[in-house]
Design brief:
The protein has 3 helices and 5 strands. By secondary structure, the protein is of the alpha+beta class. Pfam families: Gemin7 (PF11095).
């Protein structure tokens, strides 16, 4: 039988200056750097900008539907340093920076409730 591990994890507090929706805000620049090379040149070509925005909206919708489908299901997380953990997925915060999970099975024990930082997760899988 797995032994619960008493660990307290607190989420990072909100940025007092902005919510990060302003593209010029420090938070947006730090967290939402563009990964599509067209973005740099998109301001000069409105067609490319519209295509990029459409692609991003489709990917965002797919990701959010995936999070919704994961709710209350066993999820396997592959993390850095070849660490694999399993937990029951609960929710994600609004910025998708943390996942709230229950019954987190780690190599050192079981945590009843925990937050997993998304930046520590390489991938995740679950059965539909």
């Amino acid at each position: 039988m797995a032994t619960p591990v008493p660990v307290l994890r607190l989420p990072k507090g909100p940025d007092p200056n902005s919510r990060g929706f302003d593209p010029n805000s420090p938070r947006f620049i730090a967290l939402c750097r563009t990964s599509i090379p067209i973005s740099a040149a998109a301001e000069s070509d409105p067609v490319q900008l519209q295509e990029e925005q459409h692609a991003r909206s489709v990917l965002r919708e797919r990701f959010l539907r995936c999070l919704l489908a994961m709710t209350n299901k066993k999820v396997q997380f592959q993390m850095h340093e070849k660490v694999n953990v399993e937990a029951t997925f609960g929710a994600s915060d609004i910025d998708v920076l943390n996942f709230q999970v229950s019954d987190l099975h780690t190599p050192i024990g079981v945590q009843k409730e925990a937050l997993i930082r998304c930046q520590d997760v390489i991938s995740f899988t679950f059965d539909i």
